[in-house]
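#onboarding

Welcome to the new folks! Below is a worked example of what a typical request in this channel looks like: someone posts a single protein sequence, and someone else replies with the predicted structure as tokens. Don't worry about understanding the tokens yet, we'll cover that in week two.

Example request:
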Amino acid sequence: MTRRALSQPSLVLLVAVALAAVAFSLARPSFLSAGNAFNIAEQTAVISLVAFGMTAVILTRGIDLSVGSSLALASVVGGQVMHATGGSAAATIAAVFGTALLVGALNGLLVAVFGVNAFMATLGTYALAGGAAVSISRGASTNVGNDAVLWLGRADVAGVPVSTVLTVVVLAAFYVLTRRTVLGRWWYAAGGNRTAAVASGIPVRWATFVAYLTSGLTVGLGALVTIGRLSSIQPLAGQGLEFSAITAAVIGGTSLAGGRGDVVATFLGSVFVGVISAGLSFLGVSQAMIYVLTGVFVVVAVLVSQREVFAALGERYATARAVLANRLGRLRRPGRGARRGAAVAGSEDQRVHRLEVEGVSKMFPGVVALEAVGFSIESGEVVALMGENGAGKSTLVKILSGNYRPSAGGILLDGTPVRHSGPEDARRAGIAVIHQHFTLVPDLTVAENMFIGEELRWWPFGPLRRRLMRSLTRDLLRELDVPVSPRARVGALTVGQRQMIEIAKAIHERAWLVIMDEPTSALSARERDRLYEFVDRLRRRGTAILYISHKLEEIYHLASRAVVLRDGQVVGRPSLAEVAPGQLVSMMVGRRIENLFPYVAADVGEDRLSVSGLSDGGLLKDVTLTVREGEVVGFVGLMGSGRTELMRCVVGLSPVVAGTVRVMGRKGGGLSLAELAGLGVAYVPEDRLADGIFPDLSVAENMGILWIRQASGAGLLQVRRERERVDELISDLAVRPPDPRRQIRFLSGGNQQKVVLGKWLALRPKLFLLDDPTRGVDVGAKAEIHDLIAGLKSAGAAVLLTSSEMPEVLSVADRVVVMRHGVSVAEYPRGVSEEQVMRDAFGERAAAPAPGEAAVARHTEGGGDG
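Example response:
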């Protein structure tokens, strides 16, 4: 799937180059002469060539600091070979390329194979190559008179320098390489999300190694052009080249975080730097000032070409302003006594608060995210905020927490209009958000996290009052009944304990309204129950909870009423005591869903997966199960029981230390995920954000990432066929919006999960390993995913399914395998009760089986708590 011919940074740089050229020509009309244009092209040729290879490396989230010294070493070695062979051009050119490729291969080996940090690895080869160049040449230059060796840097074709022609040819080659080949797509994927690339069967190490090898190739070309331009070999040639190449790439919008970049923009970035330098020279500016002014122009160009930088600067300015105002306000307040009294929320203010959202709308370019949203919440109640992914819940939360400002409407607190200029304003108003990803610092203690940013001191900028902070933290934890020591390191706590500390921190900051976003998504059953108790304690002490979840059972367990969003509008504010779950689902999705977890019977065939005594040498100890065509096998257990580890072991992402794995009748242990995909295996990981999607790539590029490997000819993308296949999958899976060019980061969670499923469906697999495939998706998407699973089963596919929701597995599975402490302890046919499964999962002695549960296929004693 192709992108636009010119990216946004390319267009910006094209305009910037044109404006700079016009500006310099107004001061010196001769600046726009053909001779000067060719001169600029010659000067930027080496930078452009090396920057192309640098872009490839940066795309993989790497860096190559050795390009300058590698160029010098390649030139020096070429000179030595030329002297030893009596001036052989072929041997000299081969030596130049061979040396540059050798350095590139060494970098690739260190980074890709041995896992050395790219900065440190290439810094080492930078010193090694630079020292070797000076040592071999003894610091002396060597004149070159061989026309063949000098040709790339000195010759011209019809008046156009050969180096310029070479730059254009290499640019075209890199354009094709990055946009029209499987390898190029792998570079973007490996840099955009390495773990997702590994979980998609992409040979990340090989792709990274080739990127560094490609950088070595462009260094070799740059070395020959440099020799030709200087008519000599200089041991110090290439000094500062790494800076120029990285600058050209970054100006062109290539992200140092990897996964985003464009060689056309890189080329324009090098031209922009060349035009600025040449123009300042024309104006008679000293070389020192040229460096200074070039640096200024480069910073401006980066800011303009990378729009997210502007957004980040704006957000940080607003946050810094709010933080500064807060700090100044605290300096004017009395210190110790006020701190001690305010440490525990509720001790100083027991008023009933009320928050009203009135007609709030939020518009983004081309999108209405919220339209006239209104509801209220007051102290001591739990209100559920519900809606499909993309309904506007996240946007509303960001408005309440001060991260966004509404386009229309407003917020009233106790009848008074409030306007948050940033998150700090929302916190001062008593509003706190508990996100799925915690904001705690794992290496600090609980007490240190509680007071981070507001540390108690004996005097301004003086020593910390650690004992007092621990004492106040202990009082708060005791009041909230959180059994954790203030001295405990946060990183050593369980996920559930960290979540309670996060909530306690919000209460410490005097929050009366706590917004919880999917708080049970990463909790075990016992931690979930403790959270329910904790929420009830908060409610009884007067704290308001705005609770966001896609799990209907916990919504009905915790909340008294709900606010339902659909397409950015409030479609209902029902009392949960008066509305059935089916009606609530219909409100959210705008249609009636008869069965959220449908079961379909199918003919059972041969074994697709057979696992016996499987162990990975870690958490997974002894697992035995089979999955046959035409059936869904549910694989259940508590968090940490080994569910995910089993799937990773089966697909080759974790080692098989003991036991056997057979896939499609063949021995599976030792096969890579790519090889298993070729056999018809699909693997959907538990965490789609970390292991499933490539956020900077489009829907089409994500969905086709596996298919292109099997459908490409000689490594070239079959663009038309890919487009047709992706359009077919988008239609079949009802991905919304149905735009294959849209970046997947802008899709809702449910639609992202459909794309993750789609990238495997493109291969038409026969065995599906689905690790909690409906985690964090709305009920509408959940129903669609289970309709898909039912259809796959009917078509003869075999499905191994895990889920954090027990009713989901029990509803759709033909058989259920129970895990405990890495051991498969029981297997039941369809119809087993949740109570029986949980007894086995917790290791409790089983009672006599109820009617319909007697046919226990297997029960192992080795999985006890001992």
